[in-house]
Amino acid sequence: MIKVEWFYWLCGAIFLAVAVLTVADRTNAKRYGSGAFWGLLGAAFIYSTFVVHKTAPAWVLGLAVIAMALLVATGRLGRGTTPGPTRAEQESGADRFGNRLFVPALTIPVVVIIFAIGLAKIHPGGEPLLEKSSETLIGLGVAAIVAVIIGFVMLRPKSPLAPLNEGRRLLEAIGWAAVLPQMLATLGQLFVAAGVGTQVGRITKNVLPDNSLIGGVIVYCVGMALFTIIMGNAFGAFPLMTAAIGYPVLVQHFHGNPAAVFAIGMLAGFCGTLCTPMAANFNIVPAALLEMKDKYGPIKAQIPTAIPLLACNIILMYVLAF
Amino acid sequence: MLVLIGVLLVVLGFALRLNPFVVVTVAGIVTGFLGHLSVTAILNAFGNGFASSRSVTLFVLVLPVIGLIERFGLQEQGRRLIARLSGLTTGRLLVIYQFIRQVSSALGLASINGPAALVRPLIYPMAEGAAERRFGRALPDPMREKVKAFSASADTVGQFFGEDIFVAIGSILLITGFVDTTYHLKLDALNVALWAIPTAICAYVIHGTRLYLLDHRLGRMAEAAGLTGRTDRAEAQEAGR
User: Fold this and answer.
1) What are phi and psi of A132, to 5 degrees?
2) Cα B61 to the chain's mean position, in Å?
3) Which of A56, A257, A309, B213 has the largest count of CB atoms under 10 Å?
């Protein structure tokens, strides 16, 4: 069986290689601090396998993560001056290869589709070929490998390290934002462990108007969105808002159709996800990937969609579920 | 109520534009202490949280190949391709892309990581190329930022409001799993997924309209920046190169 952990190790190996190249990069004024950051990240990726399997203590990993935060906080993370492709390089490459340049890029979605839809259903010898519920992630990993091989054979870069160096260029541009989503997932779990959710649920219950269907629908949907903005994902908000309002008020008291109430309630939460920097993987990482000056640019583009869409969800729930 | 101080810290930190990585770490530690967790429990939470959320960082695997083909002119080729498709403006391209992303997410391809695998190498260069065809290659930064922001948003909105139509996605499984065990209902996952369709249509109409209007918005920004539309001849030269 192909396991997703193999690809986490590959990812860890890339971070470790980036660490080595960074320490050797004399154009980076902060090469030791940066090397330490990427090195810690790579080691943490590999060590995590043992934490997930409960064969190694998690607090060691916790220390490593906080050490990474300290490196960022004290300004030790920097980037080298590896130049991006110049216009001349780009034009001569485009002249030579033309539309063939799209082949490696398009390989990625094609391979992912093959894995997610085709290979996911294959069970040689009664065991699934791909680890369950990680089919797309495995597909993404395999796609990356296939694409880099195609790209290398087609383009024949001068150095065998070229893919790694180019990957490092992009990764340095993203910087700490690459790990922010994982930090936020952690924060979400700490919020839950410390009882933040129960507190917010209690507050929401207090603003609920008595015996008003539209009032209940509005508090449930807006609450899902606001709570999602705080927690960074709708998954944390759903159990709490549903326990406070969704089930007791909308389903039990007003006899709403549970499937419709919960499906639309979850989507009301997604409207919150569009607006929050806490959902870093959807909102901050893309800004970093596109090397935007304003890291909140995507959020600003999404808020004017999120607000009318939340209103739509409220109307849809009121009309369709009751 | 004290535990909510952690939330306040996050809000303040983001509002003051402090480094989010540091803000989140500090808020996590503070929240842990206010919730009476021991130092070991807090460190364990950081460790377990990191280990169990590695999937969101797996997009890093595609960076080497994307960096490589960018070096050999991928983005330039994106511009040239779009230059030949003269009907395809920035806004129209993104309207089409959001449709593709939404439908493919509804078929179970939500977790492909659009920003790294699709937007950076393919969609953004074409969206920018279309704007450059219209306004010239010296696009002012605010216009580039706008194109980047809307390229990212087309991907995110498409994914969010497509994925819930797919039965085996995390959020649907969370709904049925939580509700069935807590309230002893028997919800059919397919039924829940079908109720996501009306919102999906609204999302496409609302965001699609805004993407479509992006062309007008860019036109206004260009006018304000003193850029005039390019002559047909310049455009033909660019396309015919």
Assistant:
1) -60, 140
2) 18
3) A309
**How far apart (Å, rounded) are the C-alpha atoms in residues A129 and A55?**
25
CA A128-A130-A136 angle, to 5 degrees, is: 135
> What's the token pair of residue A311?
């209103």
| Polymer length of chain A | 322
pLDDT digits (tens, 9 = 90+) for A156-204: 999 999 999 999 999 998 899 888 888 888 887 788 778 877 787 788 7
Query: Is residue A2 classed as helix, strand or coil in its secondary structure?
Result: strand
Q: Look at residue B228 in the predicted model and tell me its pLDDT.
A: 67
Contact A194, B35 (CB under 8 A): yes
Given a cut of 50, is residue B240 above it in pLDDT?
Answer: no
Question: CB distance A65–B25 less than 8 Å?
Answer: yes
Nearest CA in chain A to B50: A182
Spatial separation of the C-alpha atoms in residues A223 and A217, rounded to whole Å: 10
Please answer whether residues A310 and B203 qualify as being in contact, where contact means their C-beta atoms are separated by less than 8 angstroms. no
pLDDT above 90 covers what percent of chain B?
Answer: 49
What confidence category does residue B233 fall into, taking pLDDT thresholds of 50, 70 and 90?
Answer: very low
Contact B109 A116 (CB under 8 A): yes
Cβ atoms of residues B64 and A164 within 8 Å: yes
Chain A residues touching residue B177 (CB < 8 angstroms): none
Q: Token pair for residue A300?
A: 């600003």
Q: Which residues of B touch A177 (CB under 8 A)?
A: 20-21
Of A164, A274, A297, the CB nearest to B148: A297
Own/partner contacts of A24-32, CB < 8 Å, gap of 24 or more, are A25/A80, A25/A82, A27/A80, A27/A81, A27/A82, A28/A78, A28/A79, A28/A80, A28/A81, A29/A78, A30/A75, A30/A76, A30/A77, A30/A78, A31/A78, A31/A80, A32/A76
Q: What is the ipTM metric for this complex?
A: 0.88
Nearest to A116 by CA among B178, B117, B180: B117
Residue type, A237: A
Q: What is the pLDDT of residues A5-57, one digit of tens each?
A: 999 999 999 999 999 999 999 998 999 999 999 999 999 999 999 999 999 99
- Answer for the pair B212, B91: CB distance below 8 angstroms, yes or no: yes
B86: left (phi over 0), alpha (psi -120 to 50) or beta: alpha
